[in-house]
User: Fold these one by one.
Assistant:
Number 1:
Amino acid sequence: MGAIAAGIAMFGAAIGGGIGDGIVIAKMLEGMVRQPELSGQLRTNMFIGVGLVEAMPIISFVVALMVMNK
């Protein structure tokens, strides 16, 4: 039962991370098109945002491993 719960948790985290990354990158590109002079600042903020979004699947992976080993 723990393996099924871990799989469902990882599935949700992967879907959420993929959607979140897509939204962050799309909005950054939209901002670069509107104001090309801010591309450096937008790119820096995009990397910070992607890093924060990717933290969720990593934490979910750790929790899934803990559930499986319980």
Number 2:
Amino acid sequence: MIIPHLVFLVGPSKNPEPVALSAFASPDALDPQLLQFLEGASERLCNWIGSAAERGPLPALRVLPDAAPQTHGRTMEQLLDDLQQVMDGAFQPSHPGAIAHLDPPPLSASIAADLICAGLNNNLLAEELSPSLSHLERQLCAWFAERIGFPAGSSGVAASGGTLSNLIALVAARHHAGLDHTPDAVVVVSADAHVSWHKAARVMGLQNDAVREIPVDGQGRIDLQQLEDELTALSREGRPCIAVVATAGTTVRGAIDPVSALADLCSRLGRWLHVDGAIGAVFALSPTSTHLLDGIARADSITVNPQKVLGITKTSSLLLVRNPSVLAEAFSTGLPYMEPALEHDHGGELGLQGSRPAEVLKLWLGLRQLGESGIEQVLSAAIARREYLQQQLDPNRLMILSGPLHVLACRPQRGQAQQHESWSIETRRLLLSQGIMVSRPLHQGRHHLKAVLGNPHTHDGLLDQLASALNQSVEVRP
């Protein structure tokens, strides 16, 4: 086999000698050029993170290298410069003012694990392609399931994002109910549920009205009476229900549906209960916030995204199921081209993804870095920042939407929708000029400004500055 070489120019001399660097590192000895390249890339990344506070959350310029490869490969230094340009044009989650979205800074151990994941290049499709990592995924899913309160033997599967976890859950629930060939089946969610349910219904070939949205109460939680009325109406119409979805952490205000009451209802009616806890389920890991998720252990399936609060590098999502056999029943194809798994089903037989990177590695190592006390600290501090900001906001000027988690949204108390839109644009622009990045969601027909307080670098002084700007952006009328 001929292994291609790229010619890299290295060294400080004026006329450096070309050094041959294999496109694929040798399996026989340490590759010094690969080591040098990774060290150079790591140094630039660390400098980029370490200088985050000197810039804003969003880049001033977005100058990118050419996307297409050139005729000949680029030198090591040119490749590092290409990477630098991408970094210089990237969103900076480590900036203290980056509080717009559910994208906290990355955990240090998780960054390293992502590098090792790429170097191992194992495939969680099948056990023989990822022997230790397949075992690690099963063990970690079982640990999460146990900590959330599922019975012994419960487990799950890692997926690339909450949207995919939700889709896998819905496909499994449909198959379990014997509704694979029933396009008029529906899924019932709250009006503030995530948009991924509409994507799932479209992918699954369900009818246009398959996602039934139930109004929410004043705290942003699904209205139980209207939910029960809808389920009764569906039964009269002969429309089967695939699942009822409880949202544990809505996107705009972080509200949590009454999971325990929903579990009572679903148990009585024999409905599958899925908890979309992409935002909030991770708070069940902390003894000081687990009460916020009361009843979550009674669900049939749960989506949890450690990337949204704990700083696990993207993507990191788990679908946890009370009965792991429902996944294999829904997705197993046999994988006839692979050796049988030694103990359990292959990872590629438990969800929609076949080939999968070993994303579980960065979750595992990140949690190992934090430990129980670190997990508790990250979660409690996020809630404390939201509580602090909320205390600084003037309710006479601003309508504040929040739940018990770390998300808060607001808009002026008075005014029409068009005025709120203009206010949100102008105020967000002002805040960006001060190095504070909030988001501008459209919620119930009105634009709001939203802050997500999961960034551990966000200090009280910055929150004071944010609250002052928001309060001053709205006039108080007599």
Number 3:
Amino acid sequence: MSAASPRSVVLPLAVGLFAAGVLAVLAVFGSYAAGLADLPLWLNLATLLAPAGLVVGVVGAVLRTRRG
């Protein structure tokens, strides 16, 4: 029997970052649609979590396939 590989924390982290970023993007679009133009800086910066999650996921997948 082969030993089970330990679960990687990278994939859930990447999915969580991406989901938080998408929610922030939806909040920004919803705010603009509601007529709000002066949004807080943290909300605008939170939209950067989506591409960060994508990068973390791709890098994690590449490193995982190179290891095993």
Number 4:
Amino acid sequence: MAEYKNVEELTYKEASTELELIIRSLESGDMELEESLESYTRGVELLKSLRARLAGAEQKVSVLLKDIDGNDELIAGSPADDSDALNL
């Protein structure tokens, strides 16, 4: 069983890099069943944390984007490319 750092102690970049490595390992098909399940579980934890952090950042940005009158001025953006996302 691999020793992992607590997900919340990782920076966003560290968590996303670790998730990418897990995905690549799972896609390779070289792991034993137990290791695959452990990696998948860790990947889900990382993904949940990353999504929560993105939602928090989006909320902060929407607060910062206020017009002169104090009204929210949320500028629409394009959705992120999730073609390589985990399907949970």
